[in-house]
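# nightly structure sweep
# worker-07 picked up a monomer target from the shared queue
# config: single-sequence mode, recycle default, output format = structure tokens
# input follows
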Amino acid sequence: MSDKSIYHLPVMLSEVIEALQIKSDGVYVDATFGGGGHSAAILKRLGKEGRLVAFDQDKDARQNLPDDPRVIFVAANFRHLSRFLRLHKVDKVDGILADLGVSSFQLDTASRGFSTRFEGPLNMRMDHARQHTAADVLNNFSKDELQKLFQEYGEVTNARTLAGVIEEERRLKRFELISDLIAALRPIAKGNPQRYFAQVFQALRIQVNDELGALEELLKQSVDVLNVGGRVAILTFHSLEDRIVKNFFKYGNAEGERRTDDFGNVLEVKLSAVTRKPTLPSPGEIRKNPRARSAKLRVAEKI
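# output follows
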């Protein structure tokens, strides 16, 4: 087994475990297994009858699996939650956790292409089996598609200028490496260059992995698979994710709309937020793990 502390420090571990209100004989889902830190803490609270279903689309996460008969590992994206629970004959669960952050292992592995700190291919796939990489997006999206992507997913202020620069640069040379992209970004970076690079990389990563679509599907399915009184805890790391979770807990949809049926009756929302505001990491945790600084934890209960 790998060194899990190197793979990924679990964010807001005690807060997550407390929020899930784990029952010793319950069934729980860790939708983002990663280094297994959150899963290990859940397993400590479970008795012999308890079970944990761990999802991870990244095949490298499998190396962190504990030798524990209570664990079912699913090598798939959590957007397939319902299907794989049925496959493993799990009818209902008592809690679901999703830590939406990119793992430290992924960020620190140059070949994955997630970080500006290393040279490597413009990959950014969390699942190696996904067809399109960040390089494919940069080389094949139209100028208008790129502008929309950087505006919506990166909240980049000069997205139009950026899209134009990428269009010009790829006529001369295909984007293949992280250094190719950084070289194109540096002359037009607004404000803090590192923050600007991070926004662009975030936009590409979200697009490559359809992260927001997967999150919305997870939330919809969580309503169906949770027992009444069961909880879903979501750790987000940027405003786009947090907005979807907040809206879903309040309105039952990602758009934040109060919807009605054909007779004008307001549709029942089956999840109820446990707290009005998200839980934030403590200053002490941020000092120990700077990557936790942007984390927000929202928790809802099935009613």
